[in-house]
Amino acid sequence: MTRVWVSGSLAYDRIMDYPGRFGDHIDPTKTHILNLSFAVPTLQQTYGGTAGNIAYGLTQLGCHCGVVASLGADGTMYLKRLRILKVYTKHVQMVGTLPTAGAYVITDRDDNQITGFVVGAASQLPKPPTTRPGDWGMVAAEQGRNMGLLAKHYASRGSPYVFDPGQALTDITVADLRFCIAKAKVVVSNDYEMSIIARRSRVKFGSDQIIITTLGAQGSLVATAGKTLRVRAAKAASVVDPTGAGDAYRAGLMKGLIEGWPLVRTAQLASVVASYAVEALGTQTYTFTIKEITNRYYETFKEKLAYSR
To answer: Is residue 91 within a helix (H) or strand (E), and if so which, with residue range?
Structure first.
C-alpha cells in the first residue's frame, strides 16, 4: 500500500471576503508607510493548513495518506476530523502549551489575498515517518527549518518527495532551500514563488526533475528533461473562494505521481481537482464523485480518464 506523507501546517482558517478591491486603497508611491484596515461583513472559521488541505484532497481521491504536523491545545476537534477522514495520524503531534496554527485570510473581489499566519504549534516538528518502498513525501509550506529536516529525512531513506515551499520561502535559509530543491523529485510553486526560488537558490534543476509552475486561471507549466508542456485550467461551475485551489492541485498531482501516470495526465487531473476547490467556501469543503471528475476531465481535455479510488 503506497502512502503519501504530507507535512506542512494544520491550521484553523479564519476567512474574510472584502467586497471591494485592495488596489483602490493602496498608493503605490507610499507603500513604505502602508497602514490600512478593511471592513469585512463576515468571518468564517474552517479547517485548513497546507498539510490538512492536501491530505483532505488525497482522501477525496481515495489515496492513503498520513500527516506529519502538529496541533495545539485546541486541536482535538481537528485530530478527530482527520481520523474520520481516515488519515493516518500517528505522526500528528499534540502540543499542549501552544495554540493550533491560525490563518487570517482576506480576499478581495479580484481574488487578491492578504494573509496573516499565527504559527503556534506548527513550529514543532513531530517524529518523521519510517517510509516504505513506494511511499512519497509531500514537503509543503511550513517553518523553513522543518522543511529542511524533512527533506533530509526523505533523502536519507531514498524516498521521493515533492517540494512545495509556497509562502514559507521567506522563512527558509538559502542552504536548506538549495538542499530541498536539489533532492526533490518534483518542485511545485506558483509563478511568483518560482521567480523567488530561482533568485534565492540559483540552483540549476536536474534533467530528471519535474518542475511545475502554476499560473492560476492560465493553467500550469510542466517542465522536465528540457521540455515544457502547458496544461490549461479546468473551468469551475462557479468561483466562490480561490483559497484552497493550490492545495487541491497538489492533491491531484500526488494522485497521478503515486499511480505512475504520464505527467500531462497527472497535471490535467490536478487542474480538475483544483476547479472543484474554488466552487466551495473554505479549503476542505469541496466534494466530487468519480463520475463528476471524469466528466469534467473529458469536457476540459477531450480525453477519457481511467480513474478509480
So the answer is: none
pTM above 0.85, yes or no: yes
d(Cα 144, Cα 169) in Å, to the nearest integer? Answer: 7
Where the chain has pLDDT below 70, the residues are 309
Separation of alpha carbons 158 and 41, rounded Å: 50
Q: Over the stretch 98-122, which tens digit does the pLDDT of each residue have?
A: 999 998 989 899 888 898 889 999 9
The predicted pLDDT at position 225 comes to 86
71 has which bridge partners? Answer: 94
For 153, other C-beta atoms within 10 Å of its C-beta total 22
What are the tens digits of pLDDT across the range 190-243? 999 999 999 999 888 988 999 999 999 899 999 998 899 999 999 999 998 888
Q: Looking up cell 495554540, which residue turns up?
A: 99
Amino acid at 24: D
Query: End-to-end distance of the chain based on CA atoms, in angstroms?
Result: 13
Residue whose cell numbers read 498608493: 27
- Taking the domains of the chain in order of start, what are their residue ranges? 3-22+43-301
- Asked whether 263 and 224 are in contact (CB, 8 A), the reply is yes
Do residues 219 and 272 lie in contact, with contact meaning Cβ atoms separated by under 8 Å?
no
523553513: which residue's cell? Answer: 144
Please state, in angstroms and rounded to a whole number, the distance separating the CA atoms of residues 250 and 252. Answer: 5
Which one, of 247, 234, 302, lies nearest residue 65 by Cα? 247
> Hey, which residues does 47 pair with through a beta bridge?
12
Which residues lie below 8 Å from residue 116, measured CB to CB, with a gap of 6+?
A: 103, 104
HSE-CB for 207 with a 13 A CA cutoff: 2
Task: Answer yes or no: CATH 3.40.1190.20 is held by domain 3-22+43-301.
Answer: yes
3 state SS of 262: coil
Calpha distance 216→255 (Å, rounded):
20
